Amino acid sequence: MKILVPVKQVATLDEEFELQEDELDVDHDFCEYDINEWDDYSLEEALQIKEANEGQEVEVIALTVGDDDAEDALRTCMAKGADRAVRIWDDAMEGADPMAIARAIAKFVEQEKPDLVFAGVQSSDQAFAQTGMQVAALLGWPHAAVVNNLDYTPGAGTATVRRELEGGLEEEVEVQVPAVMTIQLGINDPRYASLKGIKQAKSRPIDEYSPADLGLSEDEMGASGSLSQVRKVYVPEKGQAEMIEGTPAEQAARLAEIIKEFKGAAS
Amino acid sequence: MSGILVVAEHRQGELSDSVPELVGLANGLKEGLGGPLMVAVIAQDPSAFSDQVNLAGVDEIVQVPVSVAEFQPDVWEAALQKLVAEKGASVVMTPHSVDGWGYAPTLAAANGYGFASDVLETKVDGGEVVAVRPGYGEKVHMEVGFPGKDAVVLTVRSGEHPVVEESGSAEVTTAEAPDVTPRSEHKRFIEPESGGGVDLSQEEFIMSIGRGISDEENVEQFSELAEEIGAALGCSRPIADNGWLPKAHQVGQSGTTASNCKFYLALGISGSVQHQAGMKHVDSIVAVNTDPEAPIFSVAKYGVVADIFDIAEELRPHFE
Ligand SMILES: Cc1cc2nc3c(=O)[nH]c(=O)nc-3n(C[C@H](O)[C@H](O)[C@H](O)COP(=O)(O)OP(=O)(O)OC[C@H]3O[C@@H](n4cnc5c(N)ncnc54)[C@H](O)[C@@H]3O)c2cc1C
């Protein structure tokens, strides 16, 4: 069987940053990139299924939709044990919202026919919480969002999962397979890549496709394949705390005062 | 098309708190957009919720009886798709909740509706809906539009809008749900484990630690500090996920809401929306973080930009 793990290279903004001139995005010079935290867990879940079923040939494929820079995320996945890495890109994808990304992923799924797709619940930069589910919708596949426990035996027609709901409540659900699931933090304990793995991953090939290779038409890519369009990006006015300045000793002294005031008033 | 359809989520027989808030937001949108405001109740016995969702501004309550007792994404998606078509709704509003994530993106994707998630604000510009959502870890906001889309699905962040408390005089109608075979099945709910004596919902003074403590071996000293200053010990999610503290200490959306808390000290916590869900209502929040741009400072009353280890060390002598 095959498990496809779509991963995303996410951006963290520097403390000081600027917007692009057209005000449609931040200036990417002020971004640092790393693999999305949620994707560590979805990859780990796939690797654990593979390792628990050694006789069964479970193939784990990591995929990203992104430009060259996004290869780092794929190398990380290979270093941890992904069997294959795939990158889909074309400059026409520029301006894509999650739906346009989902279209490319879904096309790859149609070609590769994995049994399971594990996407992260959300990404740490934009927190859309939609890409995985939209892949499911495009494929017409069963799906489960926010999975924090998974029980699946390769070949089985259903998986038993737990969805993490609000307030610590969970729900047990039986889902027909093939399925798309979005994987939640805490479902497992993601491994670190070994030094040896990192070294080996450097020289391994990454399969590259343009969305057109996969059968996506121009008007399904980028902005025209999107469900939304950014009109403007701005820095919001935020409520701002009263800042306690000084040396740590001075800050702590003021903090102690505030705590004591509160406790005095409370008692 | 016109009209707004608010989805009334519910679980275990209880209506979600999001409904009066969504109705509040939808009332504002209705002014600019025109058309009726409808609330869809998809449930085994939708009439059980009719009184509760009959809020000021709601024109129609659409009861959609279905065979499943609890949320099932295929059933909800199919029912909503049919309602949008039949009622001609141009906006569907759902909470940005765990269940919302399971049907709202698929509803939009399957039908080519516009879509935005984690929506903070909505407005109408030139007759079209515009939504505001956060980006880059809450550091910017983005205004998004939906050119060429007849219908738009929005998942709306909770706790941002005034709730409608006044009851209304909506017409109650019934709509038939399409006959779909659900491809997943709800088996049971699993209640959170009891906290071994920890119940943060009862505590007035909580000191919480986040990923800023870096290492499991540092938990001990902060746990001692909490005791010295007389606070209950809370934490953000990574601390519980790593098994450094039991889950009962976790504050937030998937943890405990600090309902009775009056003073919340957040150490090394960035203040993600899911953490804020459990604490931002607290009157006095004090945050210590090395990052002056951390979102926690936008809900805190007092902020300290500093290393939590330095502050902890300097704080101790004041409580000996
Ligand atoms: C469905 C769902 C439910 C969730 N439920 C919850 C929940 O209930 N509760 C919850 O907390 N999260 C929850 N999360 C996770 C949430 O999105 C964040 O990942 C999490 O809250 C981050 O925790 P943190 O602030 O401790 O870590 P980070 O975001 O990593 O922040 C650590 C902070 O510490 C600061 N720092 C680092 N070192 C120091 C130092 N030495 N001194 C001072 N500051 C320092 C950093 O500047 C940073 O701001 C949920 C997520 C999802 C998707």
From TrEMBL, chain A:
Family annotation (Pfam families): ETF
InterPro entries, sorted: ET-Flavoprotein_bsu_CS (IPR000049), ETF_a/b_N (IPR014730), ETF_b (IPR012255), ETF_beta_N (IPR033948), Rossmann-like_a/b/a_fold (IPR014729)
Keyword annotations of the record: Electron transport, Transport
Record flagged with keyword Cytoplasm: no
Sequence ranges assigned to domain Electron transfer flavoprotein alpha/beta-subunit N-terminal in this UniProt record: 27-218
Taxonomy, superkingdom: Bacteria
SMART domains in the cross-refs: ETF
Family: Belongs to the ETF beta-subunit/FixA family.
Protein name per Swiss-Prot or TrEMBL: Electron transfer flavoprotein subunit beta
Organism: Thiohalorhabdus methylotrophus
TrEMBL record, chain B:
Top-level taxonomic group: Bacteria
Domain named Electron transfer flavoprotein alpha/beta-subunit N-terminal: residues: 4-193
Signal peptide: none
Keyword set includes GTP-binding: no
Keywords carried by this UniProt record: Electron transport, Transport
SMART domains: ETF
InterPro entries, per database record: DHS-like_NAD/FAD-binding_dom, ETF_a/b_N, ETF_a/FixB, ETF_asu_C, Rossmann-like_a/b/a_fold
Entries under Pfam families matching the protein: ETF, ETF_alpha
Coiled-coil regions, chain positions: none
Family from the record: Belongs to the ETF alpha-subunit/FixB family.
Name of the featured protein: Electron transfer flavoprotein subunit alpha/FixB family protein
